[in-house]
Amino acid sequence: MQYQWRRPAQPCRAGAARRWCPDRGKLAVVSSGSASEPASAEVGSHLPGSARQPGRPDSEELYKMRIGLGIGEYSGPPVGPQELAGQAKRAEELGFDSVWLPQVMGADALTTLVVAGSATERVGLGTAVVPIQLRHPVALAQQALTVQAVVGGRLHLGIGLSHKPVIETMWGIPFEKPARHMDEYLTVLADLVEKGSASLSGEFYRLNASLSVPGAGPFPILVAALGERMLGVAGRKAAGTVTWMTGRKTLESHIVPKITRAAEEAGRPAPRVVAGVQVALTPDVDAARERAARVFAIYPTLPSYRAMLDIEGAGSAADLVIAGDEAAVERQIRSYFDAGATEVLAVPVGIGETKEEKIASSERTVEFLGSLASRGG
User: What CATH code is assigned to 57-374?
Assistant: First the structure.
């Protein structure tokens, strides 16, 4: 095994090559072990006091964990852009690598990121995710490039298909051939972002378009991809995926190998895998499980998430929540990186009887996660 200081030429990942690299030009760790080297079955087995996981460096300082913070409507009611900007500033102060906003029923995520960008200097600014059906790809490219120019090149654009009940019942838009729709959408969006022009004669889009936004460079596009066809689209045409309601087993056996294979076949760099997780720093694990099951009760009823839970052998969000004391939380978060995640998007779950207790619980969780992010794990 060799260690050297360098900036990775492409995003790093876990996988067949058994290659792990911290980002931002810090120490790159490249294992010289064979591709057939067996992985450790013990979660967190590379932590101090346990046997070193095969293929990992002995010093945990060499193992960088990129942790982002989910803010906004992930687990609570809508809040305004100024408050969300304050949360982003707090996340930056605590050392998080990035902050992520969902596009749900509250403030527009991309517009809010402009406000958050003015309150921050370093932290990455992501959407997880913007549904594509309400925005023509030219309109989204124009808006996102404008945001990219304003926030100084820190945008990470996550997009997705949402779900049939939302698209058809709430918005009145046909939810037809979703993977094909995303394929064409990505073709247009990526060409506009990377080349400034797009031309397509497809089933969903027939266009010739160009954009030029001064001060805006390309940004990574991530797709909320869970099924095999969507993972193929994301691997071939995007920078990676953002997952939700997806456990460690499912990442390792389904998400990572399928999106990685698609990227390799397309000659693209190794994909980013941003794993969304629910986290509670608490001695009462049962309370955390009960709270997660209640707050995220809708997700097991949606087919795409139900499929991921079934692969995991999980019944609900209660079976996925990361909960426990500091050692337990760190060990469980590390296990997502062992499964192939390149980043973790952490959504705090507040525990308590009153609103004030839940807020205090969430803050303790956020502060601990920030300490992990700031020291790289």
Answer: 3.20.20.30
Tens-place pLDDT, residues 129-179: 999 999 999 999 999 999 999 999 999 999 999 878 778 888 898 879 999
Q: What is the C-alpha separation between 239 and 234, in angstroms, rounded? A: 7
Q: Determine contact, residues 362/369, Cβ cutoff 8 Å.
A: no
In sequence order, which residues have a C-beta less than 8 Å from that of residue 153 and are 6 or more positions away? Answer: 217, 219
Neighbours of 30 (CB within 10 A): 17
Nearest of 14, 42, 9, 54 to residue 257 by alpha carbon: 14
Q: What is the rounded CA–CA span in Å between residue 272 and residue 10?
A: 10
| Residue 131, beta-bridge partner list | 160
Give tens-digit pLDDT for 88-143. 999 999 999 999 999 888 899 999 999 999 999 999 999 999 999 999 999 999 99
pLDDT on residue 170:
83
**174 C-beta neighbours (distance < 10 Å), count:** 10
pTM for this predicted structure: 0.83
**Cα distance between residue 271 and residue 37, in whole Å:** 22
Question: How much is the mean pLDDT over the chain?
Answer: 85
Query: In sequence order, which residues have a C-beta less than 8 Å from that of residue 148 and are 6 or more positions away?
Result: 154, 155, 213, 216, 217, 219
Residue spans per domain, the chain = 57-374
Pairing label, strands 130-131, 221-223: unpaired
| pLDDT at 12 > cutoff 50 | no
Q: Are strands 343-348 and 67-70 parallel, antiparallel or unpaired?
A: parallel
> Are 345 and 275 within 8 A, CB to CB?
yes
Alpha helices in the chain (DSSP H): 81-94, 109-119, 137-150, 164, 178-195, 228-237, 248-250, 256-265, 285-295, 303-312, 326-338, 355-374
Q: State the Cα–Cα distance between residues 217 and 365, nearest whole angstrom.
A: 35
